[in-house]
Amino acid sequence: MKRLFLLLALILLGGARDPILVPEISQHEVQVRQGFRGTELVLFGAILSPDGTRAGPDYDIVVVLKGPTKSIVLREKQRIAGIWVNAESVEFRSAPTYFAVASSKPIGRIVDDKTAAIYELGLPWLQLSPIGSYDPKEQARMSAGLVDLMSREGLYRQDTRGVQVSQQVLYQARIALPSSVQTGVYTAETFAISRGRVVASAISRVEVKKLGFEKAVADFSQDYGFVYGLLAVLLSIGMGFLAGRLFALV
After folding, report:
1. d(CA 171, CA 187)
2. Which end of the chain, N or C, is less surrounded by CB atoms within 10 Å?
3. What is the pTM of this model?
4. pLDDT in the model for residue 223
5. What is the dihedral of CA 116, 160, 101, 54, to 10 degrees?
6. Strand 29-32 to strand 197-210: parallel, antiparallel, or no bridges (unpaired)?
7. Contact at 8 Å (CB) between 88 and 76?
8. Pairing state of beta strands 39-48 and 20-25?
């Protein structure tokens, strides 16, 4: 917050050639502990015109929050003889584990499709590249399938009225992180757009990390994967045996 006010004062005193974005985020660290049920990030800041005054009504704001990328395998279900089985599978080389977009207006009213695709300003323009050679229609179908799956899990989302702009200077967006978010560094990129053109952008970062027992389990599973898997199997067998004995006594 102090950095926001300091930058605002410097801009008002000095001025600049291009519009200036001064972004901030409510918390730069999200701690995942036992019983974590998700949280809400508030992304806020200001945009000022080159002469240090309010930017005016012709500016729109789009905020893109993106989580760490990883390889994701999408498996398509197919019904055979009345049974649903895994059929075709597709691997995406580097898909974001979390992706959210909030904007002051619907994206189609702010920029054209080309600009939206360059900056990934929404789920329809998220760049997903499956490994392998596919025709454009098949690639679009697979990408849409992944977006739909992640959206239903709350990991991909878009709010076309999610940014509130006050007096054409201050903006605020609220973006929810579900309990299933992956750990890592998340980037929040804010875009100021005027007349279909991105005129300023700025990046903030927030780290999601596990603490306590959850961190110990996660570190153990990564450092000793075989032992962790073996213990998980033994625990499942033990719980099954104990449940069977309890039901036998009833």
Report:
1. 18
2. C
3. 0.76
4. 60
5. 80
6. parallel
7. yes
8. antiparallel
Handedness of CA 146, 148, 154, 159 (dihedral sign): positive
Contact (Cβ atoms closer than 8 angstroms) between residue 52 and residue 34: no
Angle of helix 213-223 versus helix 225-249 axis, rounded to 10 = 120
CA distance 92 to 119: 19
Within 13 Å of residue 147, how many CA atoms lie on the same side as its CB?
Answer: 18
Rounded to 10 degrees, the C-alpha dihedral 83/84/88/92 comes to -160
- Distances in Å between the alpha carbon of 20 and those of 14, 24, 52, 80, 194? 12, 13, 9, 58, 13
Check residue 54 and give left, alpha or beta (phi > 0: left; psi -120 to 50: alpha).
beta
The answer to whether residues 148 and 157 touch, using CB atoms and an 8 Å cutoff, is: no
CB contact at 8 A, 26 and 174: no
Residue type, 177: L
Of 137, 143, 110, the residue nearest 125 (C-alpha): 143
Q: Which of 14-18, 19-23, 76-80 has the weakest average pLDDT?
A: 14-18
- Determine the distance from the C-alpha atom of residue 28 to the mean position of all C-alpha atoms in its chain, rounded to a whole number: 15
CA gap 98, 187 in Å, rounded: 10
